[in-house]
Amino acid sequence: MHRASTPCPSSGRPRSTRSPAPAFFAGLAGDASPEVVAAALRALGLTGYADAPAILTSAMANDDWDVRAAAAESAGRLGLPELAPPLSRLLDDEVWNVRYAAAKALRSFGQPGERLLRQIADSEVSRSQRTASLILAEGPAA
Predict the structure, then answer these.
(1) pTM above threshold 0.90
(2) 118 close to 103: Cβ distance less than 8 angstroms
(3) pLDDT of 70-95, one tens digit each?
(4) Alpha helical stretches, state H, the chain
C-alpha cells in the first residue's frame, strides 16, 4: 500500500498524510496523564505529523517536566527549527533534563541552532548559559 506524503518544510522529510498513527498520538497529547502525554509526544516525534509544531509548542509549557522534555526531544528529532524560540526558553527551565533536551534539540538544527547556543553561551551566567556551554562542549551534532 502506498502512503501519500508531503515534505516537511523544515526538514524535507516526508510527512504521512494517511496513516492513522500520527493522529492517534496527537490525540493522546491531550490526555490527563503526564506519562501518557510524554509517551505520545515521543511517538509523535517519530511520525512527522503535520500539526506537530503546534502540539509540541503547547507541550513545552506543560506543568510536568517529562512532558516538556519529551516535547523538546521530539522537536529536535523532527528537525523543526521554527521551534527554536520556545526551545530557547526551555534552556532556563528549573529541571536539568528539560534544559538538556532543549539544548540537544537546538544543536540538532545544525549551524543556526549552534549559533543560537553560542549566543546564549556568551551571555551572562545563568542556567541557560551553563546548559548552552555544556552542549557545545560535547561537540557538533551527530
Answers:
(1) no
(2) no
(3) 999 999 999 999 999 999 999 999 99
(4) 20-28, 34-44, 52-59, 65-78, 84-90, 96-108, 111-121, 127-137
